[in-house]
Every structure is written in C-alpha cells, then in structure tokens.
Amino acid sequence: ATGIFFTPLTKLQKSHTKIKKSSYAVLVVYGVALACSTIAFSFGLKETSATNASILSNSEIVFTVLIGMIIFKEYLARKEVLPFALIAAGAIFLPIGSDIYEHRFAFSEFVFGDIMIVVSGFIYCLCTFIAKHASDVKTTRVVQIMSLSGALFSFILMMAFQTPINIDLSALPTLSFIGIAGIGGSVLFFVMAVRLIGAVRTILIFSSATVFGVVYSSIYLSESVTPFTV
Fold first, then answer.
1. How many CA atoms lie within 13 A of 140 on its CB side?
2. Nearest CA among 63, 62, 57 for reference residue 213
3. What is the pTM of this model?
4. Residue 40: what pLDDT?
5. Residues 165 and 28 sit within 8 Å (Cβ to Cβ)
6. How many other CB atoms are there within 10 angstroms of residue 89's CB atom?
7. How far is CA 43 from the centre of its chain?
8. Which of 55, 82, 157, 158 could form a disulfide with 163 if both were Cys (CB 3.0 to 4.6 A apart)?
9. How far apart, in whole angstroms, are the C-alpha atoms of residue 32 and residue 27?
10. What one-character DSSP code corresponds to residue 161?
11. Is 33 within 8 Å of 128 (Cβ atoms)?
12. CA 227/CA 230 separation, integer angstroms
C-alpha cells in the first residue's frame, strides 16, 4: 500500500539529478532492512505491552552511538558518558530486567517480546546509516523504492515459510493506513530530517516517539503508566 501510494507522488517532486545505480542498490537494502525491523517489531508487540515497546524502541539510540564509536571512530566526551549510560539503562536494561524479575527470572514470552523490540531497534539504527548513502535520491523516491523492495522481500519470506495469505477485508483500511502514514510517512520525514540536521540529531529527536507511544498506550489501550515507566 505504501509503495503504490508514493509512486504517483514521485512524479510531483521534480529532480534533475541523475540517480546512481549504487543509490538504487542502497535503497533496496534499506527497504529489506526496514522490512526486517518491522517484522521483528510486530513479533515483539504481540508478546509485550505497547508501553514497553515504546520505551524499548529507544534502544536504537544506544546502537547508533556504539556503531559510531566502533566503525566511525567517534568517541563520547567525558560529560557524555553518564547521559549515555542512563539512556542505555532506561532504554534496554531496566525494562527487560524488570520483566525478567516479575516473571521470576524465567525466559517468558513477554521477555521474548522485549528482546524482539530491541532487535528491531538495532536494525532500524542501521537504516539511519544506510539512508545517508542515498543523498542524491529525492525523498518520495526513497520511500517508494524502500516500500516496494520491502514488500517484495516480505512476499519472498511468506512463500519460503509457506505463510497463508489470509487477510480480513475489514482490516485492509487499518493496515493500509499503518503502511502509508505509520511507515511511509515516518520514513519520509525521517529521511528529510537526516538530510537537514544530520543522523545523530535526528535519532535524538526521534526518541520523542517514546512519549507519544506511552501516552497513546494509556489513552487508547488503557495500559497503566506506572512510576517505573515514567
């Protein structure tokens, strides 16, 4: 649905720059990576709460910093070590540790869901670095190619695992909205932000999604917001 929606929009955004073949290849990789991230997130969300998922999705900040340190040799200043440690503790260790403690140190389905959300955050963090290598491609084209390649990859996985295509027609509008607005719209503004203010600032501001996620989980799903969550 996302790829179909953004295909006609690419014609409205004019660009006179010729796109390199390597950029197309990067976008295909981007689409496959984002599809893997979405699949991991969906598996995780089935087992854990929406509130936990919102908090754990911030793990991508931790992975972004670690990759920057390991691959790009970017090191934290002394005054940045404590804030990073707090983010790592709040985004990964405290939520998972709390769930393990509540389930008496057993590897429950809830804990499995938490880990899948963290895996999703790691993959999404890689997408940030991938997107930077396609700076010559207009933003709507990025979303179009990413969506279509991700959809193709998902269909290949479905055929490989013999997943039946049983979709309730009444769910199609909701799924389409999630695809177009939740995934396509998010990626569109995300790529625009990376190009305008850089990857690091984009990731930091993107973490505000946690606040929205916790509020929406409380209002629409009636999930309790505990002092620990705050």
1. 12
2. 57
3. 0.75
4. 92
5. no
6. 13
7. 13
8. 158
9. 9
10. T
11. no
12. 5
User: What's the token pair of residue 71?
Assistant: 């691959």
Instruction: Count other C-beta atoms under 10 Å from residue 63's C-beta.
Output: 21
pLDDT at 153: 95
Compute the distance between CA of residue 58 and CA of residue 174 in angstroms, rounded to an integer.
Answer: 25
**How far from the centroid of its chain's Cα atoms is residue 225's Cα?**
23
d(CA 64, CA 36): 17
Residue 5 has a CB neighbour count (10 Å cut-off) of 17
Q: Output the six-digit token pair for 117.
A: 């959300």
What distance in Å separates the CA atoms of residue 11 and residue 14, rounded to the nearest whole number? 7
pLDDT tens digits in sequence order for the chain, 230 residues long: 999 999 998 888 776 667 777 788 888 988 999 899 989 999 888 888 887 788 887 787 788 778 777 776 767 778 778 877 887 787 777 777 776 766 666 666 777 888 898 899 888 888 777 766 777 788 888 889 889 999 999 999 999 999 888 888 888 899 899 899 988 998 889 888 878 887 667 777 777 788 888 888 889 888 888 777 77
For residue 154, what pLDDT is reported?
Answer: 94
Angle 31-34-36 from CA coordinates, rounded to 5°: 110
Q: Looking at 94-198, list the stretches that DSSP marks H as alpha helix, in order from N- to C-terminal side.
A: 94-102, 109-131, 139-160, 172-177, 186-197
Question: DSSP character for 170?
Answer: G
CB atoms within 10 A of CB 131: 25
Given this model, what pLDDT does residue 114 score?
83
